[in-house]
Amino acid sequence: MNSMEEKFDKKLPFKVPEGYFDNLPSRVQERIAANETQNDFKGRWVTIRSQLAFAAGFAFMALLSYLGYYMARPLISERKAVKTDYVEIVSRTIYEFDDIDLYKAIEQKKKTDSLKEVYNDMPHRLYVRSSNCITIIDEKKEVKP
Amino acid sequence: MENHTDSELLVMFRNPDTKHYAFNLLVRKYQERLYWQIRKIVISHDDADDVIQNTFLKVWGGLDNFREDSQLFTWLYRIATNEALTFLKKKRTKLMLPLVDVEQQLMRSLEGDPFIDGDDTQLKLQKALLKLPEKQRLVFNMKYFDEMKYEEISEILGTSVGALKASFHHAVKKIEKFLEED
To answer: Is B144 close to A10, i.e. CB distance below 8 A?
Structure first.
């Protein structure tokens, strides 16, 4: 170490431009002022940006809800009746049935209970069938010998 | 201007009316010592100029939180050293250079910077210093040129006194070897 100190003085081989240290404090102050203005702008921009982001998010969610609602509507109107819907239909139309008519129909059915009787009594009918509609166009009773 | 103590400067700095004035005094008081510390690390004047301005910007932003647990100068010195080291690190990352190339760049600065003004022996010592690992170069600079105590260096670099002594010892040995070989 001592030998090094003997060989090399402690002077650095560097220099600075003339008046450098006289001007540095004012340059530093300028940088600080510029930085504060920039930070102020950045701060405001961050606030505005977060508000814009919130508004955009809200608008997007609203749009999504609107589209979701209107796209799902046709599906709701076109949906098929499910089993439970008949309960509602029956309960709505139950008062349109007349119990007496029902009993009469059952009584009449009992009289033609035998298949043979049904066959014998059955007239020969000529009918036209088209799609779901059957139209009887002639009826003849079979004449047994 | 020079008569203000660190405590007085800090009191003035905490007063919004005298904040800028106090900071100006602080810059004037410490600029040279900090500049030379930075310059020894980054070598080029232009780089040192950038780094010292960044250092004072950091000081401006952090001085409100300075709690006087350590000396103001030690705190400033630590910021300046870290800024200079970060500058070199960024340079390395930015240019994707290995450690050796940065040393070569610093060596070129030593030869080509217009603000180098020294005799051959001074330049020779600086070139030898550039061959040292970063930490050893730092310790050597602080001990040899700034004549700082190990305790002070320890506070600035956050390294134990024992480790610093060892670093300095190794640095001296290596420099002597470089100079003998040269």
So the answer is: yes
